[in-house]
């Protein structure tokens, strides 16, 4: 009888340990999926931004022919930012693009006809909306990354994370806090 009780205790402990491991594994999968969902949201907003930039550049070209170098730089940075990146590299590319767009908008101030063009005004509003949406998507993503990384790093879930190759996720950050502000697009 004693052997049966001991065997039952061992089976219960092994079952509890297995249940614990499966629960932690599923928690890690859930958190990783939230990170991937968050990155997808950023990706959608960035695509909307990339699609809008050529329209802005074309409208500006009509009015500001001698700003060609700035326009080409914006398009070049847009094209570079569209490639496949890690969140860290994407963040760096987006910072450069945001800076170039801000510079373009500052240069546009010298063209009163352009500033009053209805199409340009509409494009500015769309860009501002997209920039706000990018900021919200970035907050969601970074929150998901924070939660996921906490689970990956915490004991005892880190044992399961290490065993099944759950790696820490990168934040989508801006290095310069001033660049966290949306580009100035109002006149």
UniProtKB/TrEMBL annotation:
Residue intervals passing through the bilayer: 6-25
InterPro entries registered for this protein in UniProt: LemA-like_dom_sf, MamQ_LemA
Topological relation to the membrane, as annotated: Single-pass membrane protein
Subcellular localization, as worded in the UniProt entry: Membrane
Gene3D superfamilies reported in the protein's UniProt record: LemA-like domain
Keyword tags: Membrane, Transmembrane, Transmembrane helix
Predominant localisation class: membrane
Any Pfam family hit: LemA
Superkingdom to which the source organism belongs: Bacteria
Coiled coil regions in record: none
Family of the protein in this entry: Belongs to the LemA family.
Record protein name field: LemA family protein
Organism, as annotated: Marinicella sediminis
